[in-house]
């Protein structure tokens, strides 16, 4: 089930206790021997250079329950990220530490998947089945990963099997609302060659039950309560997904390998009608093609990686009232990374070039952007690696124009064998999106990048006493963002983005986990708790009533609790979530009250003729709560899912 | 005897205390929000003043209405919800009063809500529209309703409270004026102002007019002024149409200017519009004013109306679209005489004296 690993040290083989049970990420990079591990399918980039960063890891066990679901469902249930979901299977974007959706990068093999059009990643379009792990990085890794990494980053991980020969994993699933899912993963592992093939298919009527309860506060006096309303079936909500992911890596000699990864996917979604909307039969098609190539060389203390990625994204929208709207983007990115690992000195020096072209509907609306960046990190270890710290610096040019230097500093101190303190200070930024800059009649080409500073410090403990394992991490963070982009009236029915706010976010996060084994029974308890204040402190708007008030759609409080019991091959897990008030008007004249929801799962592992299998049953929204995350976008009432997983 | 815990025990205790402490802290930090009570109770049903339409936010269903009593200088806020105990709907686009009935055009609720203009009580609604924008009463219980998506202007029987037919017009239809039984209709997504014969309910003419007619007013000389938004390479323009003769005068705005919300003063001799600042021009002038009538000074002016009896402009600042608008009343000399906080996205004003 859920496994939380705290602190940057999980990424370092030479770190302390908590590293041992962490999933392996980029293991060949961690290995400092002169011979490469046979193959690295993929993982996180720059694994040595996250000193001072806070991570949460969701490994394949954590993700097992969500094989039928998408990344949005996974992160909503298993992380502290606030997912702004517009309904089951619908647009879902991440936000944490008071940041917008476009302040959270989603990285695949280190390549940023944020749309150049709107700066977001729709997490509902990423099937959990296609990834083997997720690393959630809190705070800003902007010095390493560039624009859009203000609140944090979500790293999508691919795992590698250790078994030689062919391994096949199959998924069959069904659930409420005529949802059917199928998937297959084939891994081939040989001494010099490794391959993976993943195919995924899902189709759902998705006509989930909901109650048409207007939850926007304050409500009119005669509002009927949710209990008195009849259940309705969501209209115009069907969806389908087809995806194919491939990975190939070949090792030649003792110190080189080359790799190729592709990801082809098409999502078709009808867009459900909000409570105050009319059914215009809106639907959206998302197509993405991703191609990555890499070359890796290791010689003695020196490593080099050259990577190239091509990303094609197409989004097509249509409804009864308007002409088809189609946006297409092509992004080419090339990296050259150099690493030197000499004892207690680690050095990373990289260069990046990126060319992006996007088009909206007509040839006239074609926009280009060129980025060049150079960045480097120096990391030093002291006292047998009980104290590590690093400094990074990034300089980037956007269409030839430099943006301010992006420095960062991180440290990690093991003050006791089970206790560490780590933290970092980092500058961050977000470039305006193409929509911000060029949207017909409304874009503002004079926008400045959002920029600011992040500071955070974490105290982490990991202890086992009399068979009880207790793990905690308490984090305090502080973040400022200048030139926050906001869309404001322009005239008539038009609006335009402006650099409006200076925003201050600060908060406290507590992650904890307890684990006790008693004979065949393993009990796990865990919690994630977040208290975040995020408010504009200055504004270019005249007499702005939002000053000093909590940002919209930024709950001050999020709590998550989970209990898991595993007896022999059967496990039972319960998840509880509390999400606090979300203001939807910036002057707090409208809001949505807090909501809770629960999830219950049962799974049983079995073996037939040496073939491993798992049957899982999941109940989402266990107590049938009527709730909305976004205003007037009702979330599904109770739903079930059944998965069958086989490993052949 | 007091036993001193070992470091391990201490850390364990500390962990548990940390968890418990944080849970208590976290769960006690959020007070439940309580809606502020509307302190102004509606008691005077003969009040004079002006209505303020709170457009609200798209798909939030938070449209409402305010009424500013110019005799008592009191704003009655959210009068529809307060008077009827229910929400008005989604996006209040515009309103008209005819025979003491207020017709509230609720755009994204696809309806026109009828409300007693004195008591603010709901009188039902007319439904069946696609995306209604403006209602133009034509007498004899007949009205036309423009529509964003329907490719038509609706014909409505106000006494039966139902749609009787529609007149096909391509594209988005917006503001309308009537002159000698001819209805002039802004085509916001086209190059034309359309002319309908209100007696036969038919399209009888169209006038080529740059691009995107958005506002339309009738002046003292019975000329029709049309403000267009333009579309590259056509700039925004102000046109003067002489009914029956066509365009008499055209004045271009500079490229990239986005003028909007054309209104006319009480005796219909002066035009006002928003172009970031507020501008004013006499109907006999032939060129754009070089300086503004009232400077925005950083405000985001969004909607504007004219109060004929007071001879004053009323204008809203929508700020960031998701907070309450400021409303300003400006006298004929360009001095601010009143400022107040109203609803979210104040998008329309209607005098009711």
Which helices and strands appear, and what pairs or packs with what?
The complex is a heterodimer of chains A (648) and B (353).
Chain A: H1 27-30, E1 54-58, H2 60-63, H3 71-78, E2 82-85, E3 92-95, E4 104-108, E5 111-112, E6 133-138, H4 142-145, E7 152-157, E8 165-175, E9 179-189, E10 193-204, E11 209-211, E12 216-217, E13 231-233, E14 239-252, E15 256-270, E16 283-299, E17 302-318, E18 325-342, E19 345-360, E20 366-382, E21 387-398, E22 401-402, E23 406-416, E24 419-430, H5 434-438, E25 450-465, E26 468-491, E27 494-518, E28 521-539, E29 557-567, E30 570-579, E31 582-583, E32 591-592, E33 595-608, E34 611-620, E35 639-647
Parallel strand pairs in A: 4-7
Antiparallel strand pairs in A: 1-6, 2-3, 4-5, 6-7, 8-9, 8-35, 9-10, 10-14, 11-13, 12-32, 14-15, 15-16, 16-17, 17-18, 18-19, 19-20, 20-21, 21-22, 21-23, 23-24, 24-25, 25-26, 26-27, 27-28, 28-29, 29-30, 30-33, 31-32, 33-34, 34-35
Chain B: H1 7-27, E1 49-54, E2 64-69, E3 74-76, H2 79-84, E4 92-98, E5 101-106, E6 111-116, E7 122-127, E8 132-139, E9 142-147, E10 152-157, E11 162-168, E12 173-179, E13 182-187, E14 192-197, E15 202-208, E16 213-218, E17 224-228, E18 237-242, E19 246-252, E20 260-264, E21 270-275, E22 277-282, E23 301-307, E24 312-317, E25 324-330, E26 336-344, E27 346-352
Antiparallel strand pairs in B: 1-2, 1-27, 2-3, 4-5, 5-6, 6-7, 8-9, 9-10, 10-11, 12-13, 13-14, 14-15, 16-17, 17-18, 18-19, 20-21, 21-22, 23-24, 24-25, 25-26
């Amino acid at each position: 089930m859920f496994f939380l690993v705290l602190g940057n040290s999980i990424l370092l083989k030479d770190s302390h206790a908590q590293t041992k049970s962490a999933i392996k990420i980029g293991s060949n990079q961690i290995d400092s021997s002169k011979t490469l591990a046979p193959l690295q399918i993929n993982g996180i980039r720059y694994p040595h250079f996250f000193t001072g960063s806070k991570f949460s890891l969701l490994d394949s066990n954590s993700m097992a329950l969500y094989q039928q679901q998408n990344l949005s469902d996974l992160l909503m249930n298993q992380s502290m990220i606030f997912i702004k979901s517009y309904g089951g299977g619908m647009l879902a974007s991440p936000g944490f530490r008071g940041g917008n959706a476009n302040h959270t990068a989603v990285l695949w093999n280190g390549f940023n998947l944020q749309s150049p059009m709107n700066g977001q990643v729709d997490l509902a379009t990423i099937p959990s089945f296609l990834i083997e792990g997720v690393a959630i990085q809190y705070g800003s890794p902007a010095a390493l990963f560039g624009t859009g990494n203000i609140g944090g980053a979500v790293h999508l991980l691919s795992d590698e099997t250790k078994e030689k020969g062919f391994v096949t994993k199959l998924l069959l699933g069904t659930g409420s609302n005529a949802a059917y899912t199928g998937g297959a993963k084939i891994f081939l592992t040989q001494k010099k060659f490794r391959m993976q093939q993943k195919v995924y298919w899902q189709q759902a009527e998705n006509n989930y039950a909901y109650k048409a309860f207007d939850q926007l506060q304050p409500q009119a006096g005669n509002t009927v309560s949710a209990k008195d309303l009849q259940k309705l079936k969501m209209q115009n909500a069907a969806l389908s997904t087809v995806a194919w992911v491939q990975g190939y890596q070949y090792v030649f000699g003792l110190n080189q390998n080359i790799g190729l990864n592709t990801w082809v996917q098409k999502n078709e979604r009808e867009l459900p009608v909000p409570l105050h909307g009319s059914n215009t039969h809106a639907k959206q098609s998302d197509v993405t093609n991703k191609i990555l190539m890499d070359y890796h060389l290791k010689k003695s203390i020196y490593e080099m990686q050259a990577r190239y990625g091509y990303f094609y994204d197409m989004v097509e929208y249509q409804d009864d009232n308007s002409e088809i709207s189609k946006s297409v983007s092509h992004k080419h990115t090339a990296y050259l990374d150099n690493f030197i690992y000499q004892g207690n000195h680690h050095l990373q020096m990289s260069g990046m070039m990126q060319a992006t072209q996007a088009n909206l509907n007509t040839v006239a609306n074609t926009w280009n952007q060129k980025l060049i960046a150079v960045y480097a990190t120096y990391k030093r270890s002291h006292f047998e690696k009980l104290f590590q710290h690093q400094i990074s610096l990034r300089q980037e040019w956007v269409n030839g124009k430099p943006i301010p230097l992006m420095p960062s500093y991180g440290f990690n101190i093991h003050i006791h064998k089970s206790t560490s303190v780590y933290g970092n200070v980092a500058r961050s930024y977000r470039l305006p999106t193409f929509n911000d800059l060029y949207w017909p009649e409304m874009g503002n080409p004079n926008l400045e990048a959002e920029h600011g500073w992040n500071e955070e410090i974490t105290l982490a403990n990991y202890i086992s006493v009399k068979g009880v394992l207790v793990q905690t991490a308490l984090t305090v963070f502080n973040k400022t963002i200048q030139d926050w982009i906001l869309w404001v009236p322009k005239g008539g029915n038009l609006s335009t983005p402006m650099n409006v706010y200076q925003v201050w976010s600060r908060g406290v996060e507590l992650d904890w986990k307890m684990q006790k084994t008693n004979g065949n029974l393993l009990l796990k308890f865990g919690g994630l708790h977040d208290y975040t204040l995020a408010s504009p402190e200055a504004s270019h708007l005249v007499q702005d009533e939002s000053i000093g008030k909590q940002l919209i759609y930024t709950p001050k409080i999020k709590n998550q609790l989970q209990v898991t019991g595993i007896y022999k091959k059967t496990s039972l897990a319960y998840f509880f979530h509390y999400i606090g008030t979300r203001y939807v008007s910036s002057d707090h004249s409208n809001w949505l009250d807090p909501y809770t929801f629960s999830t219950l799962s049962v799974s049983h592992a079995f073996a037939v003729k040496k073939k491993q299998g798992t049957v899982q049953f999941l109940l989402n929204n266990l107590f049938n709560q009527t709730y909305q995350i976004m205003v007037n976008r009702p979330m599904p009432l109770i739903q079930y899912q059944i998965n069958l997983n086989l490993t052949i | 005897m007091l036993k001193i815990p070992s470091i391990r025990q201490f850390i364990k205790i500390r962990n548990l205390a940390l968890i418990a402490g944080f849970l208590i802290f976290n769960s006690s930090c959020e007070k439940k929000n309580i809606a502020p009570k509307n302190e102004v109770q509606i008691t005077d049903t003969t009040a004079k003043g002006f209505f303020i339409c709170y457009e609200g936010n798209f798909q939030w269903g938070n449209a409402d209405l305010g009424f500013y009593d110019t005799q008592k200088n009191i704003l009655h806020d959210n009068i529809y919800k307060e008077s009827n105990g229910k929400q008005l709907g989604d996006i209040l686009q515009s309103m008209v009063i005819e025979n003491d009935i207020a017709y509230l055009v609720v755009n994204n609720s696809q309806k026109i809500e009828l409300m007693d203009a004195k008591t603010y009580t709901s009188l039902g609604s007319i439904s069946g529209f696609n995306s209604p924008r403006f209602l133009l009463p034509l007498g004899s219980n007949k009205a036309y309703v423009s529509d964003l998506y329907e490719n038509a202007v609706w014909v409505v029987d106000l006494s039966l409270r139902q749609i009787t037919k529609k007149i096909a017009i391509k594209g988005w239809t917006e503001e309308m004026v009537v002159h000698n039984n001819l209805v002039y209709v802004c085509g916001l997504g086209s190059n034309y102002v359309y002319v309908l014969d209100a007696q036969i309910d038919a399209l009888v003419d169209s006038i080529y007019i740059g691009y995107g007619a958005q506002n339309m007013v009738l002046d003292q000389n019975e000329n029709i002024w049309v403000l267009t938004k333009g579309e590259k390479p056509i700039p925004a323009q102000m046109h003067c149409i002489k009914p029956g003769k066509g365009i008499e005068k055209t004045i271009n705005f500079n490229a990239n200017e986005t003028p909007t919300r054309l209104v006319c003063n009480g005796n219909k001799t002066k035009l006002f519009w928003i172009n970031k600042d507020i501008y004013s021009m006499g109907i006999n002038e032939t060129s754009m004013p070089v300086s503004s009538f009232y400077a925005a000074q950083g405000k985001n002016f969004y909607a504007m109306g004219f109060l004929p009896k007071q001879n004053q402009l009323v204008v809203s600042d929508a700020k960031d679209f998701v907070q309450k608008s400021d409303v300003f009343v400006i006298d004929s000399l360009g001095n601010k005489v009143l400022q107040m906080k109203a609803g979210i996205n104040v998008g329309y004003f209607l005098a009711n004296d």
